[in-house]
Amino acid sequence: MTKMKKIKIGKLEIDSCVYIPPMAGVTDLAFRKMVRLFDKETLIATEMVSSKALMYNPNQSLMKLSEDEHPVGIQLFGHEPEVMAKAAILAEAQRADFIDINMGCPAPKITKGKDGAALMREPDLAIKIVKAVINAVKIPVTVKMRLGWDECSKNSPTLAADLEQVGICALTVHGRTREQGYTGNADWESIRDVRKSVSIPVFGNGDVRSPFDAAKLLEVTGCAGVAIARATMGNPWLSMQINQFIKTGTFTEEPSIDEKLDLAIKHLGELIKIKGTVVGVREGRRHLINYTKGMPNSAEARAQIGQINTMQEAEILLSRLKEESLNQVKNINLVKDKETANLS
Ligand SMILES: Cc1cc2nc3c(=O)[nH]c(=O)nc-3n(C[C@H](O)[C@H](O)[C@H](O)COP(=O)(O)O)c2cc1C
Prior knowledge:
By secondary structure, this protein is an alpha/beta fold. 48% of the residues lie in helices and 14% in strands. The protein contains twelve helices and ten strands.
């Protein structure tokens, strides 16, 4: 096993090789609290926040951070250097530990306004934005990008080197182009090429679903760290397992079915506390579905989760699932006992 070094992102030093990057609609305060139950060190970021929207409403709830969740960053998107600089000042005032600039979002509603991945087609503008943000704040500034706009314009190694010159402190690279969206496999070899073009820490990103995948990505790319997004949904313990595996070669087993269902209810409770019942339950359904994935006989429960409107309904549904899973385990054990008895 490789010995894990602390990662330095400007003045920030983290004892983790994992970054849980922004996911709109997912990495909110409630989700981040769930991650912190398992892992106090891993770098994590808010959902992306529109710099323009901040100019109209500086009190965006998306930027609210809690005192006990650091190290946490705020991700901003936008394409106007002065607006991004002003937004960065607001993010710093929220006590963010770093500001991440979004150059990777492929959604047409974002890219059509030159935001997100569209900035990779406008490297001069991208550099101006980063300069403006770095000059506006004292905290480290990082960038999250893709390999390029499309197969014919994979300019990430050059853009990364230019952004390092301007002063970014770390980089996350998702191993797909904008054109690919989420299709195909993330290209870790191309991430390695980007990593080689800079000397700041790079977090390789794309398709890491387990501690084994994380170790493989680190080996293939030589990156300082790994960014894991989708696989953390319903698995807020994954970053802890990855860090354990990279440090020691083993990792703690995932929580039992009972524990996972308790965590799902806790997550829903946090969402309701922060967003109220209507929004909290609406947003919580996808999380409950993620926590129950892979549980025996859970397909029907997942279909029903889509219909719940209250915490009580969630509790009834998940305690039924708990009972059914418990019975299933008992039946499996009975069969095993019989088989052993027949053998002896
Ligand atoms: C639901 C969802 C929302 C996302 N929102 C953002 C975002 O706000 N900003 C960003 O830079 N990337 C965003 N991403 C991209 C992820 O951070 C990550 O780069 C991508 O999912 C690939 O990593 P993975 O294979 O580990 O999921 C989002 C991804 C998903 C699935």
